[in-house]
Amino acid sequence: MAYPTVPCPLHVFEPRYRLMIRRSMETGTKQFGMCISDSQNGFADYGCMLQIRNVHFLPDGRSVVDTVGGKRFRVLRRGMKDGYCTADIEYLEDVKVVDEKELKKLRELHNFVYNQACNWFQNLRNKFRTQILQHFGPMPDREENIQAMPNGPAWCWWLLAVLPVDPRYQLSVLSMMSLKDRLIKIQHILTYFSRDQSK
């Protein structure tokens, strides 16, 4: 599962994906979409674009691709090209809250869940916290304007990437276009895991 703003290192060894990476580099887009697999449709209805930051080609043709999550998308139509899946997509953005009272409530919820996330992370065993920091880096800081980014605050995505949650649940959060709904889902996950920590 890939998320906006979250690093996603990939080890590419299958010839079809090596071709896809090479094409995205040669055309200059330096990006491609990532979806989790789906037994009925081949891949999920929602995904995230990955921006290629660097590619390290190995002598045997494999490559290590340094990517970071970009825009979220919804799949409109599925296709196939030279053995790899393709799709027509539409990008997703969070719906902005304009009502001042609702925005104030959203900020309060945001701050509460952010603090809950910080507490959960600090209460992890050192071993787990160190592994998360090595793989994903530190949790992004709280942003002043929680609606500035089309995907909402970066810390939400970082947290979803590190929480041990079923991919279908993660996918439901990725597809949400309401920051409030996303924060409520994250709050439920954190409440569940915080109960486990206190045992």
Describe the structure.
This protein is α+β, with helices and mostly antiparallel strands and 199 residues long. Helices cover 41% and strands 26% of the residues. The strands form 2 sheets. Strands 1, 2, 5, 6 and 7 form a 5-stranded antiparallel beta sheet that branches. A two-stranded antiparallel sheet has the order 3-4. Helix 2 runs parallel beside helix 6 (179-197).
Number of helices: 6
Mean pLDDT: 93
Poorly predicted runs are none
Quote the beta fraction: 25-35%
* Secondary-structure element order, N to C: EHEEEEEEHHHHH
- The helix/strand class is alpha+beta
- Biggest sheet architecture: 5 strands, antiparallel
Radius of gyration: 18 Å
Q: What is the helix content?
A: 40-55%
N-C termini distance: 29 Å
Shape: globular
What's the number of extended β-strand segments?
A: 7
SSE map:
Elements: E1 10-12, H1 15-26, E2 31-34, E3 37-38, E4 42-43, E5 46-57, E6 63-81, E7 84-92, H2 100-122, H3 126-136, H4 154-162, H5 167-174, H6 179-197
Antiparallel strand pairs: 1-6, 2-5, 3-4, 5-6, 6-7
Helix pairs in contact: 2-6
Could you give a short description of this structure?
The chain is of the alpha+beta class and 199 residues long. The chain is built from six helices and seven strands. The longest helix is centred in the middle third of the chain and has 23 residues, at 100-122.
